Amino acid sequence: MKIIEVKENKKQYLDLLLLADEQEDMVDRYLDSGKMYVLDDNGVKCECVITDEKNDILEIKNIATVPEYQGKGYARALIEFIVNNYREQYAILQVGTGDSPLTIPFYEKCGFVRSHIISNFFIDNYDHPIYESGVQLVDMVYLQRPL
C-alpha cells in the first residue's frame, strides 16, 4: 500500500471524487487549489483532497473510497497519513459533511468531534437535492480533530 500525491491531471479521478461530492462544479472549487492524495493498493482504492483554510486549519474537502473497498480501512489510513504529515504545519484537521448516519460516525471513530454547522449549505450550493441513506442533506456539519 502506498500513498501518492497527485499534482497533475487530478480530474482523471473525477469518478471517485464525485462519490464524495456529486456536483462537478463544487469539486472544481477546490480541486486545483487543494493537495490531492491517492491510496494505491494494487490499484487506486481511495482519494483525498485537502486545503489550507488559514488560521492553522487544514480541511479535508473530499475523501472517497471505491465502493467495493469501503469498510476496509483505506479512508482511515489516508486520514492518518494526513494527520502524520501535517501535524507540524497545522493545529486542526477539519472536515465538513452532511448530517448523515454513514459519515458522521466514521469521522467520530477517526477522532473528530462536532465543531459547527453551516445551515442550508446543501440547499444553497447544489443545483439538486442531495440524499444519503434516504435522508436529504440540508446543513453542513463540521467536525474537527486536533493535530
From TrEMBL:
Residues 1-147 form the N-acetyltransferase domain. It comes from the Bacteria. InterPro entries: Acyl_CoA_acyltransferase (IPR016181), GNAT_dom (IPR000182). PROSITE patterns: GNAT (PS51186). Pfam families: Acetyltransf_7. This is GNAT family N-acetyltransferase. It comes from Dorea hominis. The lineage of its organism: Bacteria, Bacillati, Bacillota, Clostridia, Lachnospirales.
